[in-house]
Amino acid sequence: MSKNTQPEQNQPLTGAPSPEEQEAAQAANEFDAQNSAQSELAILQAKNTELADSYLRAKAETENARRRADDEVSKARKFALESFAESLLPVADSLEAALAIKDATLEQFREGAEATLKQLKSALERNKVIEINPAAGTRFDPHQHQAISMVPAEQEANTVVSVLQKGYLIADRVLRPALVTVTAPK
Known about the structure:
There is one protein chain. The protein is of the alpha+beta class. 54% of the residues lie in helices and 17% in strands. It contains three helices and six strands; from the N terminus they run αααββββββ. The protein has helices spanning 19-78, 82-100, 106-126; strands spanning 129-132, 145-151, 160-165, 167-170, 173-176, 178-183. The strands form two sheets. It has a three-stranded antiparallel beta sheet with strand order 1-4-5. Strands 2-6-3 form a three-stranded mixed beta sheet, with no helix packed on it.
């Protein structure tokens, strides 16, 4: 008795893949998906490294700019008065020269004081320190003037009658207001 144990080789062609073919196709798809994911992961890691590098460079540049700005501000504060002090040195020299003269007359002292005052005013103007000296009849400005007293007068109310002490501006900012007497309301 002999049985024929040959595999069937004449299977009908149905167009459907065999289970082995399906398994092979699925394995190939999984392999392609895994390769695609690994490839995408590598691209994303490279991009991440590039962005991290760009971030660190930008952060370092920002820190350097901040440090330079801090240094400049520090130097500006430290040397802010240098120009002003240089302008005042001739005034100090003039005063010392006047005091060095032992037998100066009152007239010589007066002339020296006037010349020294002129030097001082020039130094102040060069450094943008401007006098506030309102003329009589000028309208009272509370931003630049400080009223010390009010007096009855024929002028319009709240106008300057006299200046008791000059004021000063430095770069359009009131350093000291002018002390003034103003007219009282009628």
